[in-house]
Structures
1.
Amino acid sequence: MRVLLLGANGFLGRFVADRLLADPAVHLTALGRGDDADVRFDLAGGSPGALTRFLDAVHPGVVINCAGTTRGGARELTRHNTVAVATVCEALRRSGCGARLVQVGCASEYGPSQPGSSTAEDAVPRPGGPYGVSKLAASELVLGSGLDAVVLRVFSPVGPGTPAGSPLGRLAEAMRRAMQSGDGELKLGGLGVHRDFVDVRDVARAVHAASLSAAQGIVNIGTGRAVRLRDAAAVLARVAGYAGALHELDVPPGRPSPGGPSPLGGPAPAGHSPGGPAIVAQRGESAPEGLTGAPLPYPDGCGSWQQADVRTARDRLGWRPRINLEESLADIWMEAACRI
């Protein structure tokens, strides 16, 4: 099977490439803007005609699009996340290769959801920011293209290679700096959010499965379990061996103090996670620059809660997540610790 991978050098794309290269039945070609791509092509600026000619020459059976950006203003996001996908769809329609398209979308397309709920694929998308809007527009282009196509809406990918600017990436870096300087406490903001963290290697397995399946439409990729960022911080501290206190800043009025059932390991007494440091909630303070978690308001436009309904992935792709969050966090910490 010939597979054309777009965005092979990104956070998700690198692991998708590794997964595909491990399949002896796959002949992989990587297309991108970098020098290490098999073929250099800028999806945001290149013409559909040029891409069509390449598709007709290579004749892939599957095109996987992991390309895009999470940074920049609305104009930049639209160019790389929406216009680029329009180019891919137009080229595939013109080409005679008849390739299947696997588009990697994101949970930001859904926007905020009700606490305690699971978001299914039939939920009405209401993205809360320009990133989600640009990705939703791309998904609509794919779904309305008439192509043999599937959109994987990936929730919060984590694991090795997690970007330093992501909430867990910032947590790991803040912890590394605290341990390096011998600080006995760490002040963090925005730890009350719940996200459905899914390991990037499991995402790569889902992309591989989608490329082999006949599934069309939208398929959620997550774990089906929302985890509080403060609980993830406590597990990260335990993995790192950080025994200091984690002070949570900016606790919204009326919200209970940390505690209650922990999705990472049973009930936890208030202000404490099993095997980790104390987390002390504080209000009216600002976090030192560089030592914050995900600041409020939520930059991904997803509000305080997101949790995937993953039954479609199980039923139509035969896919389930395998890697637990503690293993993902251990890999994030290993990379951060190498910078000490």
2.
Amino acid sequence: MSTEQQTAFFKQTWFLGGLAALAVFVLCFFAIDYVGSPDEPQKPEVEDVVIATLQTNEPLITIARQQGWIDADATEMTSVDAAEIDSIGQVFSGSNLQSFSEFRYFVSVREIPAGAFAHADRLKDVVVPAGVVTIADGAFADCPALEDLQVDTANTHYDSRQNCHAIICTWKGKLMLVVGCKNTVMPDDVRYVAPQAFAGCTALQSVAFPERMEEIGQEAFRGCTGLKEVTIPQGVRFVEVGTFMDCLSLQSVTLPKSVERLREHAFKGCTALSTIVMPKRFPPIVENAFDSFTATVYVPDGQLNTYFRDKVWKNFRNIKELRGDAN
């Protein structure tokens, strides 16, 4: 190869090499820019339909006006308006909403915070949006008229399976009931009841726990003034703080052999409590769980003295033996 040919060859090689290097640099630049600046989450696309009017849901229109979700003189709210809202705070707390199936259109909402619907005294039903991933304890506390809870079927964190009229999620690999109402029927595979799940549900008259229930959270049934009788299933070790506090109509409680402690204020304010059935041979620890000792306590055969010697249980002057054996 001549000198001129070699020179042309090297020039061509350098030129092609330079182009390749430039191409690699450009690709790296865009790759770094893509990794360093990911796309912002896209809000879900929604069909623009009217979800509420002054005639169908005046309380919602009023709140939407106050919050600036719609114009101050608007008479209707659309699904697009609702989809723009990503936080509800406590704007529905104490509201006079009656039915809130329109909540399903609030597709950008990720959290229902504590007290979000607290004291919404007229609220009967609600549908939780598909995007919600967090429901705080007490989000629906003190909603006495609540009778139906549903979760949008597209939600992957919560559901209302088996038409249970409750909100269910998975916690520690097992099912937990997060919020209930007067019509709730707990699915058999529920193992936990969340704190304040039924708090203030004054219309609740009875509750049937699954046999393998493991834990009932603090204040879970606080203020359930219509509840008259409770049987806590075997497996529950603690009656937590304030679990049945201010259940004014509660007359009878049957505790399991598995119970170890009755925590503070567990039965505080249960002024109608007249019967406590205790099939456990050794008295569970009581941490200021009662504010009166007028109830009759039924204990296993031969265990009267065991309970009378206990520093707390001895305050129940009327202790009787159960017939049959208990271990």
3.
Amino acid sequence: MIPIHSVTMATPNKRSNEYPNQVTDSINSHEHLPDKPEEACGVFGIYAPEEDVAKMTYFGLYALQHRGQESAGIATFEDGKVHLHKDMGLVSQVFNERVLAHLPGSLAIGHTRYSTTGSSRKDNAQPAVIETRLGSLALSHNGNLVNTLPLREELAQTKVSLVTTTDSELIALAIAEAVNAGADWLEGATKAFHRCQGAFSLVIGTPAGVMGARDPNGIRPLVIGTLPGNPVRYVLASETCGLDIIGAQYLRDVEPGELVLITEEGLASYRWSPKPQRKLCIFEMIYFARPDSIMHNESLYTYRMRLGRQIAAESTVDADIVFGVPDSGIPAAIGFAQASGVPYAEGLIKNRYVGRTFIQPTQSMRESGIRMKLNPLKDVLIGKRVIIVDDSIVRGTTSRKLVKALREAGVIEVHMRISSPPVTHPCFYGIDTDTQDQLIAATKSVKEIAEQLGVDSLAYLSWKGMLEATKEDTNTFCSACFTGDYPVTIPEQVKRSKLMLEKVVV
């Protein structure tokens, strides 16, 4: 048997023994589930002898916190020995100076998690650490495999110890299996990747160095940065904002189907997939990644402003002011204002100190319109015809409540513009977009959605406009959540299991 590396887990958060399951963490009603696609995960890796790699990883994860707020972890390597600390909670809750001081080494990897495969619990926190004949392996994963069930069955037959319910552990175990059969780290990783189907951007720590890899479609992002000095030190991160915070310079993306190995000799690149075909998730650009992160040689803030200008060209309307839903809708709202001539204003104030809370409001609080995160500016809005811009609608529940709050603030007309097309299909590649029967645009027309939300008009950005605004080859993006055209075939068993999960737990 391949034993799971024995670690002492951090003390559970005192407010809860375990975070609730991602689907049932509100109450048993779709009315109170999130109205946005839920985040991916954030990964980080660094090889920098003579630097405090644990602290640098902490700050890298801090910058990537938006990609997952359920758990966080860091693994460091010192003289072949792994040191690991992970727990439920935000990066700032899981780590402090004392904890980081007990994570020595010259290389580190980190992870901040939102659960897609595997429920939200301590056992599933990452990095996943496995023992092999070559020493410890630590793995951080962003994405989601679509062949989890057969891969789990294959590995179970070899009598490995399956401790978690994540597909990330399966990837680590597959690498360990190949290494224990005689492969080196590079060959072992490559063999394991060929057994994986779906989306995976990985950062892997070993006694020999740090590896980074992407699936053949590059669905989830991964970038390489450099730290100044002699010799040059290398950093891996889900987004460039994870590089900026520690003063690293963006070098390039890890390419689809590429594996990079960072050691004391520098960075080496290997093409492990013979036929890569780039299909970056378009939602990374629309919503998930931070607006200050760079993709395709520009900030995503700039792309999102372009989306706003495009939807203004497609469906403008006469109004007094335009504003965005903070924070993700603001760049598109500014672009809309620039293109339409409608003045931009702030109509909503976001309470940025409200994170995820697991204290449920009372029923009377719900009925009175609890506004924990967004509050209308009544004196700005009263008597106005407004255009409100948002990046997406999933169920419509939050949007309906927001429109109601605007009406109560004195708005006389509400026109909603969405800077992406209607979400009609679920994602199976690391984003939680719910099952198809719960996606409002999959079951209702735009007119019906407008009636349900209570708006005077509603318009979505066209699929063509969204892709053309990238100024890149439109065939290099995954937009399956809008079209149902999945770049990696989704097994029927996976589709059914997601639907059954919805029926069982909601």
